[in-house]
User: What shape does this take?
Amino acid sequence: MSIQTITPRALDDLRQRGETVDLIDVRTPVEYREIHAEIAQSVPLDRLDPIAVMEARNGGGEEQLYVICRSGGRGRQAAERFQAAGFSNVVNVEGGTTAWEQAGLPVVRGKKAMSLERQVRIAAGSLVVLGTALGAFVHPAFLGLSAFVGAGLVFAGLTDTCGMGMMLARMPWNQADAKAPACPR
Assistant: This one.
């Protein structure tokens, strides 16, 4: 089954018409704190429990649930988790928070933070440089570190699932001070 999508403008039009719009933001708490759609509630992907979210909704399981992330990838992953749990009424917001902001829709801005994607690039690049340097100056076996990171990046590109990103999302600097709500309402 394919993932349903909606543009930020179309979602805002639904809200403007008075329809119930439950929107969850599946980015890390720190990313959410930096900027998020005004109507979004934080439910980080690494802590997402589709059944608990659906059971906690006041509107029940029939109404659409919308998911948003930075650019659409993690939102799609969240929607796939809901589908795997038996919920087909989940819709991913195309282009994520970036597209929401570019459409001029209301956002809440907070403390600036480094994006998870940028953290992955820094960590992966550092490990490749470290592996190469150790391989050249200490022992050639250290080149395996660079190969391992490279293979991980290829896997991430092919599957749109990044193990390093999931690990970094759990780091203390990516956690906000307050606990995120468990459901949209």
In short: The helical segments are 8-16, 29-34, 50-56, 73-84, 96-102, 116-137, 143-159, 163-169. Confidence is low (pLDDT under 50) at residues 178-185.
